[in-house]
Amino acid sequence: MSESNSWAKPIARSAMHYQHLALGAAMVERDGWQRPARYASVKQELDQLRGAVGLCDISPVGKLSVQGDDLDSALARAFGDARPPDVGAVQRRSVSSGSAQLPVALARLAHDEAMVFTEPGHAAAVSETLEQQADLCAHVVDVTSGLGGVQITGPSGHLLLAGVTELDASPDALPELSCAQTRIAGVHAVLLRLDVGNVLGYEVYFGREFGEYMWDALLEAGEEHGATPVGIEAMARLQEIAPAAEA
Questions:
Q1: Are 156 and 175 in contact (CB under 8 A)?
Q2: pLDDT tier for residue 244 given thresholds of 50, 70 and 90
Q3: Domain ends where: 85, 116, 144?
Q4: For residue 1, what pLDDT is reported?
Q5: 44: part of which helix (H) or strand (E)?
Q6: DSSP assignment of 100-145, as one string?
Q7: Distances from the Cα of 61 to the Cαs of 122, 144, 194, 236, in angstroms?
């Protein structure tokens, strides 16, 4: 046969895909996913992130669950023998993959449970590094496709969360680089406090099957605080200018 046996890789869509379209999002293919680039202008969305609160679909983030009695030893070995985070803490780390250093967020959820969050498309490479600790009792499962995610960024983010969870997510009660398991809008979720420079930020991860419900619930809870959806272009721009904002 003269035809190539190669097939185009399918484009992934988050559980909130059609809600983004209904809200007028301009979509773009990025890292094998269809993602909202913007809903309004990048400037308008940047102003929203700095002045109120914006919601961004981060379902493409890589998500690895690591569990086992030897969790501390496995994490220490995988991350260069550095001390793993305490329960409720998050560490920003990097994982070696060939000649590349892949940034990750390592969140400790329990004594024997942690989650590793990677940039989109990097979950397999990071998982391979973690799985090299196979002699230890620590098991790695890629749960990227099973979990949706929403990034909540802006000074009113904690006020939005106060309307959907009993957990005190105020800046003092849930400081930067901390995490918790809680119920958000009645759904079990993992909540991370990860600021973008000096802009207050949270990441919420939950079962994909609750994606549409969670997106609507967060937008509704944030309505009185001026919450609007924002695309990945504004979030990338905010990341770029974050160091200057902190200086």
A1: no
A2: very low
A3: 144
A4: 41
A5: helix 42-51
A6: EEEEEEEEEEETTEEEEEE-TT-HHHHHHHHHTTTTSS-EEEE-GG
A7: 9, 7, 14, 14
Q: Which amino acid is at 111?
A: H
Residue 124 has pLDDT above 80, yes or no: yes
Question: pLDDT at position 8, please?
Answer: 60
- Provide the domain limits for residue 82: 62-144
C-alpha pair distances (Å), 4 with each of 55, 177, 232: 42, 48, 34
User: Based on the domain organization, do 190 and 118 belong to the same domain?
Assistant: no
Residue type, position 113, single letter: E
28, 103: one domain? no
Query: Distance between CA 122 and CA 150 in Å, rounded?
Result: 18
Q: Give me the half-sphere count of Cα atoms (radius 13 Å) on the Cβ side of residue 8.
A: 4
Question: Residue 51: pLDDT above 60?
Answer: yes
Give pLDDT, residue 131: 77
Which three-class secondary structure state does DSSP give residue 242?
A: helix
- In the chain, the percentage of residues whose pLDDT exceeds 70 is 91
Report the chain's C-alpha Rg in angstroms.
18
Same domain, 87 and 150: no
